[in-house]
Inverse folding.
């Protein structure tokens, strides 16, 4: 391992505001916080700023497959880089003690501790698991994974590519793949009718700009000749050593790579580990931290902004990051309440605008029950410990009332991913078996370290603590 | 299996996947290098011995744990490639320090 000692003099150890995540929310928050005169630390485990949406934008900005999508990100990144912000890429937050504001960070084999008056979690979203039979076969990946490969390395799946599932990101990825020279087949699992959902959910007029973009993506992919199969049910990935086909009710599509997607959910790993209050979002079918209008959480020193707070896309993440930073400015005595509220107006308006279409999108792309709680006994739910839906139902029937008990019975959530990927499915299956709402079943309570750290990193952390002045 | 697009990402880095030299685009992760190499799996699961390749590429699933420069159990999708990096399949159970 590459051991690069981080010299004590390299960076100060105390900050007004620590921001975890250099995506749109984190970058926007950092910019606004600097404008309020706060000292700002931004850490991100990725090598460059951008988050998910603008991942590797500085490398990918000229790639014709991605250029148009990366342009707004490049502008934000340039503003972020131009300011006097302590930015640490390639750095992972592995423990946070909210009461003392102590952050334990790991970077290239070294660990360090810093403190911050206030911490903003801007850690974003992750894709919802898509536990269909065969989803562990080599060659089956999440759609986001293929997009990450394209953004960071310009690479694309070779051979026959099938995209299966639903959501705005599916259509975006389809377009990006087509521009990159790959013509996928799209097998859509959407069950909700477009027109009726639109009339019921509303927001079509105020969210017209976003809607037009979305429709544009659908039309472009179809004009390019992409084959689309709609209303697909009972998906299963088939193959022996690797995926060879996607089978669904009434059809089969041979493939070399199968990319699955059923939307994104907030990454609540850290917010849950530090004990923030969470609530079940019945519309987005996920847990999310309880926050006020400025992103302040149930803990006096912690705020959350962006898709880690509520799924709403990057423009909303920017606005929410700005609001959280203004609130930090007020709480740390740098700006007055009147000043905060005055400056907040533009961001609040932008947030409202960005949210207009969300109820429609949430309703249109609501995952079906068979994705939330796989019906087939043999379907793997926990990829780490290979726990199946059947064994989970058995555990629930004999007394595992929630994910934390199921963990003791079956080890699901005890593997390396700590339940990041299976957590929502485990809860849904238990809720279904017990015939109670998911809220009642609860969620896993992850623990630090949030990411595995090496013995060397732990040892160096200890040294640093000892050597603190 | 994945292919690169050298017209658009011309800068490359040499790494070794299971001992085999391979040029991969700058900015790739070790997991991306494995996908380019065409390796049929990165590891076998300890429970049933079934083969796996990366699922999420963003640090969520831990299906990409590999041996990188002699250190086992590293999240290959979170490790950017550097020239000369040695990436190897991991045999036996994966354990993480916690
Ligand atoms: C795989 C994926 C692909 C997506 N692609 C797109 C897209 O192409 N277009 C689009 O409009 N939306 C996309 N989205 C939706 C996405 O959520 C955007 O709306 C936007 O990126 C959200 O911005 P954010 O700032 O809230 O979080 P993000 O952009 O997700 O940024 C969060 C950052 O936090 C960092 N982080 C997380 N945990 C830690 C930790 N413990 N230590 C250090 N750093 C940490 C991450 O590395 C990441 O850079 C995608 C989502 C996912 C999950
Ligand atoms: S591929 Fe999922 S953590 Fe690396």
């Amino acid at each position: 391992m590459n051991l690069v000692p981080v010299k004590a003099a390299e960076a100060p150890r105390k900050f007004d505001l620590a921001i975890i995540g250099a995506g749109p929310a984190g970058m926007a928050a950092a910019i606004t916080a600097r404008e309020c005169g706060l000292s700002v630390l931004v850490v991100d485990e990725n090598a460059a700023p951008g988050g998910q949406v603008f991942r590797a934008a500085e490398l990918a900005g000229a790639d014709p497959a991605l250029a148009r999508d990366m342009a707004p990100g490049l502008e934000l990144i340039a503003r972020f880089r131009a300011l006097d912000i302590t930015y640490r890429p390639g750095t992972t937050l592995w423990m946070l003690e909210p009461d003392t504001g102590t952050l334990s960070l790991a970077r290239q084999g070294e660990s360090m501790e810093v403190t911050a008056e206030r911490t903003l979690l801007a850690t974003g979203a992750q894709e919802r698991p898509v536990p269909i039979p065969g989803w562990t076969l080599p060659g089956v990946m999440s759609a986001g994974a293929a997009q990450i490969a394209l953004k960071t390395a310009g690479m694309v799946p070779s051979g026959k590519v099938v995209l299966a599932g639903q959501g705005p990101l599916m259509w975006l990825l389809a377009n990006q793949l087509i521009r990159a020279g790959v013509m996928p087949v799209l097998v859509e699992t959407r069950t909700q009718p477009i027109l009726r959902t639109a009339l019921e959910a509303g927001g079509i007029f105020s969210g017209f700009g976003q809607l037009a973009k979305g429709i544009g993506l659908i039309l472009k992919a179809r004009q390019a000749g992409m084959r689309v199969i709609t209303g697909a049910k009972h998906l299963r990935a088939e193959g022996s050593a690797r995926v060879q086909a996607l089978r669904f009710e009434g059809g089969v599509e041979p493939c070399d790579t199968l990319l699955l997607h059923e939307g994104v959910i907030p990454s609540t790993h850290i917010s849950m580990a530090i004990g923030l209050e969470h609530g079940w979002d019945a519309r987005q079918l996920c847990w999310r931290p309880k926050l006020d209008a400025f992103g302040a959480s149930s803990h006096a020193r912690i705020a959350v902004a962006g898709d880690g707070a509520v799924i709403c896309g990057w423009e909303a993440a920017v606005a929410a990051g700005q609001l959280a930073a203004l609130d930090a400015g007020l709480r740390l005595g740098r700006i007055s309440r009147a000043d905060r509220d005055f400056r907040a107006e533009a961001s609040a308006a932008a947030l409202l605008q960005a949210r207009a279409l969300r109820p429609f999108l949430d309703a249109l792309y609501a995952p079906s029950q068979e994705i939330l709680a796989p019906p087939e006994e043999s379907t793997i739910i926990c990829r780490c410990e290979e726990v199946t839906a059947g064994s989970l139902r058995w555990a629930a029937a004999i007394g595992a009332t929630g994910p934390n008990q199921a963990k003791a019975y079956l080890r699901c959530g005890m593997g390396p991913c700590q339940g990041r990927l299976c957590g929502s499915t485990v809860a849904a299956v238990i809720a279904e078996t017990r015939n109670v709402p998911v809220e009642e079943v609860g969620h896993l309570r992850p623990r630090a370290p949030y990411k595995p750290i090496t013995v060397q990193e732990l040892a160096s952390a200890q040294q640093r603590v000892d050597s603190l002045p | 299996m994945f292919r690169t697009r050298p017209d658009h990402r011309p800068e490359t880095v040499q790494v070794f996947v299971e001992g085999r030299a391979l040029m991969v685009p700058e900015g790739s992760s070790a997991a991306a290098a494995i996908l380019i190499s065409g390796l049929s799996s990165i590891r076998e699961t300890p429970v049933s011995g079934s083969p796996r390749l990366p699922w999420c590429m963003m640090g969520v699933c831990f299906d990409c744990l590999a041996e990188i420069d002699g250190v086992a159990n590293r999240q290959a999708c979170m490790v950017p490639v550097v020239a000369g990096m040695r990436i190897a399949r991991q045999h036996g159970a994966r354990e993480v320090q916690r």
User: Anything to note?
Assistant: Chain A has three domains: 8-126+265-335, 129-262, 373-439.
